[in-house]
Specification:
Blueprint lengths: L1 H23 L31 H5 L4 H8 L2 H19 L12 H9 L29 H10 L34
Helix pairs in contact: 4-5
Organism: Flavobacterium hankyongi
Keywords: Signal
InterPro entries: DUF4331 (IPR025566)
Amino acid sequence: MKFMKTNKYIIAAISILGLSMLMSCNDDDDDMQMMDYGPDFSGTYVQKDQMARPAINTVFVASGSPKDAFNTTIPSMMGASYQATFQSRLLALNSGYTTNALGQTAAQFTGLLATDVLNVSKVGTTTFFDGTNVLTGRALADDVIDVELLLIFGGPAGTSNAGLTSDHVNANDKAFSSTFPYLATAW
């Protein structure tokens, strides 16, 4: 009998608590302004990095202030500003450089590299290099680092310095997705 009285008190207390919570609710949240969490494009934007061709900036531009200057240089001014620096770095890396697999001299090749933009073919194959098409864009599966190493160290036929023309990373750890954005899922 005592147990039933205790249950009645518990049920009554829960009911009173529930009613008090309902009664304290009001609809004043309708008066609150909704927060807009969309993109905010106000403010000043500053160019921090350029990486159209991976590793080029890392290899050919020295650390610190020159790298910061390169990253903020307008692409149309890059060739004139950095070609000579790139050429001296190329010849320091490969003192035997004559031409590369594209037939480019050191000046031609570094002029191309110093303008850090990614060209894209709108009418042909999009690839970094597939043996025929060169720098017509970049597909996800393109082995960009191997192509860059081949052009720096491979010589006219692409066969010189075999130990330096590949990073030996020949595949991703996961396959690309078959749907946009096509990147592999995270581990």
